[in-house]
Every structure is written in structure tokens, then in C-alpha cells.
Amino acid sequence: MKESMKNEVLVNAEAFTIATQMYVRLRRVCGRVIDVMYLVNNKDYAKHVLDIALTTQDPELERFVHRLSPLIDLYPEPNPLVVETKTATEKQPVEVLETYSMEVTDEEIYQAQVHHHYIGALR
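and the corresponding C-alpha cells:
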């Protein structure tokens, strides 16, 4: 487990380094801006960016593509999404508490206003 985590970190670090260099070069050559963090985490986006880099026909970008291509294949597979299943639940009657009152008393109104009055007096 530790070995696979260590390998994953090394792959991501190397991919991040190359991707940041590609970011700068793509921006200079054709004005394209890429999301480096997404490139490091998403295999499909990484392949798309490599295709864009190859279409520029820039020798330095081609060198970056050749360095990054093997690393993309080493990206870890994404975890499957957790699918929630709803189970049928029976509706249970809600107990009505007799002690709960919807009416607000004068005392509660006064207590609520005391704090506002005090803060207003300080200003």
C-alpha cells in the first residue's frame, strides 16, 4: 500500500513538473491556457492537452508530450462513484408536543431586543 502511494506521488510530481512547463510554452506559442491540476488528475483531459500540444508543431512542446505520455498511462484509475439507493421507508407520525407554543410572549420580545439596544448604544 505504501509503495503504491509513493509511486503515485512520484508520478504526479513528475507529471506536474512537465505540465507546468507545457502551460508556459502553450501560452507563449498559441495563447492557450491549461489547467495543470486537472491535467495531473484526469487522464482524458491530459490526452486532450497532448493533442493540442502536438497540433502546434512546436519542437519543445513535442518533447514535453513525449515525456508526459508514458506518465499518463501510470495515472491511478479513478474510484467508482458511490451510488446511493433509496430504500422504502414508512412514514411515521410526528408527535405534537403540547409544551411547544407558537406565540411569542412580551418577555421574549424584550429579551431579544436588549442585546440590540445595548450594541446600538455603544455606536
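(Above: one complete record from the training split.) The helical segments are 2-30, 36-41, 43-55, 59-73, 106-122.
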